[in-house]
Structures are given as structure tokens and as C-alpha cells.
Amino acid sequence: MTENVRTETRTRGSNPSIVRTSDGVVVIDTPQLPTQAVAMRKLAESTGPIRYVMNTEHHCDHIFGNYYFQDVAPVVHHQEIADNFMLLEPTLDPYDFVAESVRTQDAPGLALFPAREAYFADLKRADITFAQDVSLQVGGHTFELLHTPGHTPGQTAVYVPEERVVFTGDTIFSGCQTWLMSSDVGEWLDSLNKIAALDVDYVVPGHGPVTDLSYIRVQRACLIQWVSAVANAVAGGWSREETIARVNPGADLPVDVGLESLRDHISTLNAASLWDKLTSTAVTGI
Q1: Domain ranges in the chain?
Q2: Of 28, 45, 160, 192, which has fewest CB within 10 angstroms of its CB?
């Protein structure tokens, strides 16, 4: 991508990245699998001292590897990420989710994987939190942390103008199925517009290959297709179960690396979450 930016897009989890500056290294998201987290730390430290670890969201595939970076550098993320860090969700126990991925896809990592009690006893959220956009300077590089809610409330994009790159986290799923989870699609669309206004050559998504700003149109269309499809199902009187069984506008897209077994889960989650919101009597974001 650039001489100073390294991103791993070919392993299970998010796309953890390293940015080299004249005064050390910034890590953006951390690997989910233990052996990869340890390897990334070694790579980063071989490049220079780690100055910050930044997270783009609270989902475990972006933050679990923080465990292997403890006491290395200040952790920076949005207050909503700190508030939701590794919390049990209605459809997912994040610790169990990572544990299963280690058992099935990182056997050597089992020796590095902490027991639940040890993990939560040592759990470190953030040294620095923010509620609005914030900018940090490291050497000759600027790191603009932009609040881009939608996929999650604390969703953050990290814009590095000197490298003409933005790390969007899961605001963009490049060439793979989008997880709506408990998202707010209206906010998500606004956040895509915010990212589209940046002057960048490279867009590092939360999942999938590195892309450019033109992909924002694809991601926007994906979100609109999901909402439209489920809205039409609701208007047609379909039950929740019928909607889950029959609605999947992302069916032709692959899932991200290592998540093949979750293909049906993703479509079920997306259809069910949107059906629940569109049929709710409460005033909520879609």
C-alpha cells in the first residue's frame, strides 16, 4: 500500500494495521488470534516503539488482541468502545466466539490464550477516550480519529492524511458480506458520506481487501438493499421467520476469511435485526 503502512487482510478477524512514523509506530486494531497478535506486536516493535494502540470498534475481532499489547502503549478509543468492550451481547458471547476461533484456526495459540477469569481480570479498555473527533500527532504523522457511528455506536475511522489512507473499521466491508448486527443504518449512511469527503487514495476496510473511495457507493447500496428488502417483507406481512428464510440480498457475496461456517448466521442476524426494528413500536434508528 505505502512504505509506512502495513495491513493484514488475509486472516480471520479484522484487518489489523501498523503505521510507521518518525517517532514510532501506531497500531490500528489488533488481531483476534493469539499467534497473529504476538507476531504483529513483534513486527511493530521491530519497526519502532509502539506509541498508541487504536481501536475502531468494540467487536471482539477488532479488540481481543489488545490483551497481547497490554502495558506497551496507551490504548485510544471512543468512549462507547470502552463502555461496550467485551460485553456479552444477546446473540454472542465475545470471549466464547474468540475461543472457538482459536480452537479451530489457531491451535498453536491455545498455549497463549488466557482463561476467561484471567482475561477479564487483566482486561484493559482505554487509557485515552474521546466523545467527538480528535487528532493526535506522532512524529510527522497526523492521526484523525473520526466518530463514524452506524455499525456500532462508537465506530471510529482513523484518517492519516500524510499517507492518504483511512482505516474505516466495519463501516466498510470490502467484497464480503456485511454484518448489520445492532447497527443504525441511517447513521451508517451518514458516516459513509463523512468518509467520502476525505482526500485519500486508500481505504482500509474492517474486512476484505484494501479499496478506494469508489467502494463507498457499493457499501451504501448494500445497506439500502438490505433495508429495502426487509421493509418490503414487512409491508407484505411476512413473519420474522419468513423474512429470515427468504430475504438475503447479500447471498452472492463471500464471507470474510475464516467465517465460512457463519454464512447462514450472518443473513439470519441481518434479516432478524432489521425486521425487529421495522416492526417495533419504539422510536429507534433502523
Answers
A1: 5-219, 221-278
A2: 45
